[in-house]
Amino acid sequence: MARIQHLADDLVLIDADYNGTPGAISVYVLLGERPALIETGPASTVETVLEGIRQAGLDPRDLRAAAVTHIHLDHAGAAGTLADRYPDLELYVHPIGAPHLIDPSRLIASARRLYGAALDTLLGEPRPISSGRVRVLKDGDEVWLGSRTLTALNSPGHATHHHAYLDRTSGDLFTGDAAGVALAGSRYVSPPTPPPELDFAAWRKTLARLRAAHPQRLLLTHFGAHTWVEQLLTDLEARLNVRERLALEAAAAGLGEEAFAEQLGALTAREIAEAAPGEERRYEVMTPLRNNVLGLLRYAARPPRRGER
Ligand SMILES: [Zn+2]
Questions:
Q1: Are 275 and 188 in contact (CB under 8 A)?
Q2: What is the pLDDT of residues 95-122, one digit of tens each?
Q3: Ligand 1 centre and the CA of 180: distance in Å?
Q4: Which helix (H) or strand (E) holds 106?
Q5: Where are the domains of the chain?
Q6: What is the distance in A from the centroid of ligand 1 to the CA of 41?
Q7: Between the chain's N and C termini, which has fewer beta carbons within 10 Å?
Q8: How many Å lie between the centroid of ligand 1 and the Cα of residue 203?
Q9: From ligand 1's centre to the CA of 122, what distance in Å?
Q10: What's the CATH fold of domain 3-301?
């Protein structure tokens, strides 16, 4: 049995049970005339997600759409597998992400650099998707999913190819990684800062934009629904600022990966001990320290130029 949670009459959360860890990766099912997913989870958890879809009362063959917030493998890695199995499924994605759903070879190569051999058991490899099945959403475009009309909000910072999806009617906002990582029921939000596109200035703008949308509820991929909207976004911004400063100081001092990992690890452990005691391991699964270290050091060595935002 997959773990699922009903968040509204037409909205079900499936816990992908990533890495055997409950509460790490959410996949959202929107029921209604046009059954759809938001996020697919990684290729490695596709069977669990399909089981969850059936438990939600939906035959996966009736799925018509899957919209991914961005193409990182923990969010969109199963898109190709689902497209192979279900010929009526259309995939919605940010313009910058689309080419990598069609040909994931560069995505796989960069994930291999980050995860090594563990990639196969941890996330699995994404399958290519024929271009005819991929629908590009631009900022502000609306997409009909389930029985809702969602608006794509360009939301760079964590990644350049990131959309959040806003349901103006309910105030639900599917945030991907743009609103950070927070366990269900927790009041601790952690900033996921992997390489290679981390951009603090862009991320701060994104947070202002998310606030301005006045969401009632943030639906995080890692993990679940959060209603402490203002505080979460404020805390996330403060923690981003701390990490940006630390990274720049580390680069200025010529700190290596290991020494910086020690620093960032200690900071993260202190934050979690205070705000979510005992949950260090689950946060590590959702947002590994090494990825965060590499993203921050890369940012500090090569801050994104204005034109790239
Ligand atoms: Zn991501």
A1: yes
A2: 999 999 999 999 999 999 888 999 999 9
A3: 9
A4: helix 105-115
A5: 3-301
A6: 11
A7: N
A8: 13
A9: 15
A10: Metallo-beta-lactamase; Chain A (3.60.15)
